[in-house]
Amino acid sequence: MSARKRVLSGMRTTGKLHLGHYHGVLTNWLKLQQEYDCYFFAADWHALTSEYQNPEIVKESTLDIFIDWLSVGIDPEQATLFIQSQIKEHAELHLLLSMITPLPWLLRNPTYKDSQTENGGEGDATYGFLGYPVLQAADIIIYKANLVPIGVDQLPHVELTREITRRFNHLYGEVFPVPEPILTETSKVNGLDGRKMSKSYNNAIYLSDDEAALKKKVSAMVTDVQRARRKDPGDPKQCNLFPLHTLYSNPAEIEEICSACPKAEIGCVDCKKILLRNLVDGLAPVHEKRRYYEERPEMVQEIIAAGAGKARAVAVETMRQVRKAVKISSD
User: Disulfide check for 245: which of 211, 249, 260, 274 has CB 3.0–4.6 Å away?
Assistant: First the structure.
């Protein structure tokens, strides 16, 4: 029987995880860990590309992110969990890859181009921000990952990794497999105000929010802006609340809302009460596990250390092969 293909994915440690992370990334990780040899890492070096002036956020977020991962069911017996900065080989491979990566490849990166356009050419113009795709490539290929789970908007990033990988192999020999993207469908989760859920917008429902916080946030959610009064008919498709119903409410409740809302037989306050109840129930297992790991930080640290040990062993062997290919002494 052939070995399972390897998957690599990470999350930047820039704050608490919210429902957007849960339904956009973590539910997919739960499936992948059943089928593949998965490496999931906390990308604290990547976090510094935007939080270099606030490094305390990166430190505070790292342990919290692992607790969230474990709370939703990411299994350290099935997946390797580690912190990027604890595997120094990432930095070494990043340096070597930066020597062969043409500058125009980085300048055409959509994320960099958009940042410069939005900020008049002044924002995020650091070497680290420009070059982060090279570090991203190192993160992926140092584990010889075959597959990288992404949304369609991230395709250009993985394609750049593929170009860098092919260039390295052309120059020095076939050291790395060229990783393939796995396009993943992500559930639409908007924030309290209708925009994309984000810490920076202050509109997020966090996995760590207790019942009181959930009640406050659900009560404040924007609904159908065309429905000014209780007696006005509404449209669930135009309601910021409804996508969460599709994730947390049962089919009978969803059907009732779809029938009653357009006829003004149910008000937004009633709709929010239904969602709150189901959201509290749906997140209860996550909160229970979260309390368990919060009370046992030493257990979480042991899991991280074990993952780092496994990841480091792979990275060290890869770098031995890289140095040989590049003809750099390992002494």
Answer: 249
270 contacts: CB under 8 Å, gap ≥ 6? none
183 strand-pairing partners: 150
* Distance separating alpha carbons of residues 132 and 46, to the nearest angstrom: 7
Q: What is the pLDDT of residue 3?
A: 82
C-alpha span between 75 and 28 (Å, rounded): 13
User: Do 227 and 305 reside in the same domain of the chain?
Assistant: no
CATH, residue 248: 1.10.240.10
Instruction: Report which secondary-structure segment, H or E, holds 248.
Output: helix 242-248
* Residue reference for tokens 């969990």: 81
Judge whether 58 and 13 are in contact, CB under 8 Å. yes
* The one-letter amino acid at 80: T
Give the contacts of 126 (CB within 8 A, at least 6 positions apart). 49, 52
Q: Cα(first)–Cα(last) distance of the chain, in Å? A: 38
Instruction: Answer yes or no: do 147 and 240 share one domain.
Output: no
pLDDT for 2 equals 47
* Average pLDDT per block of 10 residues along the chain, 331 residues long: 84 95 95 97 95 92 97 98 98 98 92 71 76 97 97 89 98 98 84 92 96 96 89 90 94 95 93 97 98 97 98 98 90 56
Q: What pLDDT is attached to residue 38?
A: 98
Q: Which domain holds residue 265?
A: 211-291
pLDDT of residue 121: 54
134 and 257 together in one domain? no
Cα–Cα distance measured from residue 114 to residue 252, given in angstroms and rounded to the nearest whole number: 43
Determine the pLDDT at residue 1.
37
Beta bridge partners of 11: 42
> 15: domain CATH number?
3.40.50.620
Q: Quick one: CA torsion of 35, 42, 294, 280, rounded to 10 degrees?
A: -60
Q: Tell me how far apart the alpha carbons of residues 191 and 221 are, in angstroms, rounded to a whole number.
A: 8
Determine the Cα–Cα distance for residues 312 and 304; give it in Å rounded to an integer: 12
Threshold 0.90, pTM exceeds: yes
